[in-house]
Amino acid sequence: MAGSGPRPATLRSAFSIAWPASLAAIITPLLGLIDIAVLGRGADAVALAGASLGGAVISLLYWSFGFLRMSLSGLSAQALGSGDEVQLRTYLLQGLVIGLSIGSALTLLAGPIIAIGHFFLVETSEASAEAGSAMETYLRVRLLAAPAVLATTAILGWLTGQARTGLLMAITGSIAVINAVLSVFFVLELEQGIAGLAAATALAELIGLVLCGLAVLWVTHQRGGIGQFWDIDHARRGFRVLMSLNRDIFIRTLLIDSVLLSFARVGAGFGDLTLAANHVLLNLVLAVTLLLDGPAIAAETYVGQALGAKTNKVALFTAAWRETAKISAGQAMILCLSLVIFGPSLLSGIVGDGPDSAVVVAEAKRYLPWAMVMPLAVAAAYHLDGIYIGAIRGAALRNTMAMSVLVFGVSALLLIPILGNHGLWLALLMFMIARGIFLIINWSGFRAMLA
Asked: Of 316, 324, 327, 412, which cross-links 306 as Cys (Cβ 3.0–4.6 Å)?
């Protein structure tokens, strides 16, 4: 098995990877939608606002270290393409050490993290003190599970690079179901409010790590045996190389997270109601558009295998990006149409019938058209991200993201004074479009890699 070379992607084979990866990709925003649905039935707009602020901080922290998934996906795919089983398992060991170390540091630094979040999102904004207090409660509990979250991130990246998207879907789907059940129990049955909501998510994340461990045992058993091909000394020596590759992707992720955090921060300036509405809409947008992560993950896998292959690189690479691009374009059009038809009903279903649900839904519907067009705006960026990640083109990802953030900042400064919250959404839309454009401009960099 280790000696077999990669096969060219076909539409059918790419779709077989993409569809379970698409479902797996929406789990993180789905957890946010579950939170909203439960709070909407058991709390008020202040709790929703607090969950929005806390969710922004969690996203900034966890997605900032999303390089673990992305780099391990590309590196594992390349190791698989070259048939190097020892290197494949080395990447897993290195990823786990990095993930557990970073996660433990986040747990220990919970106090300073909460203080910084409170300063930027509450003290220097129009968010209420009550929303800030809810945010602090939420973060204090969620950060206890940080080591499990980042170790899970590393394992999921390792599985992704091997096209094990069925396992990816099973693990993330299980986490979502467990989180939903625990959230309903803690918030609606035990009436623990936002603290119960955070505890439910943290417990689901801990269980997710256990499921990931079982998946690793299963995969290594299939690939030559659980106790075979491990080289601890090799793993120690390769850390510097891995961290160097991760650096640029880390900066890129920080940049995109800064946009999401700025979105929440600026939205807080419009008051708790608009903040809550933006939170609902942004989670809906993430849940829908992250379905586009499926073809991107398929591109990561096939591009990584193509570049790791010893022969036929150009044909493998061309098939990889073309076949996955077809799936991405088709999904984007379907998602856009779905939001046009079902968007209003989805908002009502997400928020529920809590004390302030009607006003939150009404506010969210004012900005729903921006969510409707977002799938078309982000399709190119998501797909190209997958291609660049599979190739480990970290510097290009970093530089194009920096230019896109500049587009967002300038757009927000010019548009918000004129259009208010509509200007904020338009700036986010322009940011997503710019990401795709700048990545297309940098396409020529692949020629040297395929020579």
From this structure: 316
Predicted confidence (pLDDT) per residue in 336-350, tens digit: 999 999 988 888 877
- CA-only gyration radius of the chain, Å: 21
Distance CA 434, CA 378 (A): 9
Distance CA(293)–CA(63), nearest Å, equals 15
Task: State both tokens at 335.
Answer: 């998602």
* Contact (CB, 8 A) for 291 and 437: no
More confident residue, 19 or 211: 211
Q: Is 5 helix (H, G, I), strand (E, B) or coil?
A: coil
Count CA within 13 A, CB hemisphere, residue 177.
Answer: 7
Which helix or strand (DSSP H or E) is residue 293 part of? helix 293-308
The amino acid at residue 221 is: H
Structure tokens at 110: 């919970």
Given a contact cutoff of 8 angstroms between Cβ atoms, the answer to whether 184 and 196 are in contact is no
Q: Which residues contact 342 (CB under 8 A, 6 or more apart)?
A: none
**Residue from 108, 111, 89 nearest 100 by CA:** 108
CA distances from 439 to 265, 326, 402 (A): 27, 18, 12
> CA-CA distance, 286 to 184, in Å (whole number)?
22
Neighbours of 233 (CB within 10 A): 8
Amino acid 1: pLDDT: 41
Six-digit token string for 109: 């630094």
Cβ-contact 300, 69 below 8 angstroms? no
Alpha-carbon distance 99 to 93, whole Å?
Answer: 10
For the chain, the helix, strand and coil percentages under 3-state DSSP, each to the nearest 5: 85, 0, 15
Q: Identify the three-state secondary structure at position 307.
A: helix
Contact (Cβ atoms closer than 8 angstroms) between residue 36 and residue 283 = yes
